[in-house]
Amino acid sequence: GGGLASVMAVWFDRPATVFDPAPFQRTAESAFAAIEVQASLGTAAPQALVDYIPGLHFAAREARVRGYFAVGEFLQYLRKDTNTVVSADFRPAAVKSAADAWQSHGGSMRHAA
Questions:
Q1: Apex CA 106: angle with CA 104 and CA 111, to 5°?
Q2: Among 69, 81, 61, CA closest to 106
Q3: From residue 27, how far is each of 22, 35, 37, 79, 89 by CA, in Å?
Q4: Alpha-carbon distance values, 8 to 41, 46, 97, 103 (Å)
Q5: What is the pTM of this model?
């Protein structure tokens, strides 16, 4: 859910705090994907999505996405600064164990300190 929430935060220009986001930056930066979503929403599309131009807006909107991840959680090894939508303060959150983080991806933050 954190990856999807980060994309929505960028497209709809909303601040967000996400947990264990999947690396969905390519989707957030895709003008094609944003246009497809806008078209599916029709006249109900929020102005922030209508106005979104990835090359102009992505960096500023990404800066409003705060993220946390569980150390040892399996997506940790797939995430990079260039493929995950999060601000520069992306940081680990404490969990009981790496095994717990693996078993409960997406829910592991219930153990956050």
A1: 65
A2: 69
A3: 11, 11, 11, 14, 21
A4: 14, 11, 30, 26
A5: 0.79
Q: Tens digits of per-residue pLDDT, 48-82?
A: 999 999 999 999 999 999 988 888 877 887 888 88
Q: Round to whole Å and give the CA distance between 43 and 35.
A: 13
Per residue in 5-19, pLDDT (tens digit) is 999 999 999 999 999
**Sign of the C-alpha dihedral computed for residues 10, 82, 37 and 105 taken in this order:** negative
Nearest Cα to 98, choosing from 69, 76, 72, 70? 72
- Position of tokens 């131009």? 53
In this structure, the strands spanning 65-70 and 16-19 are parallel
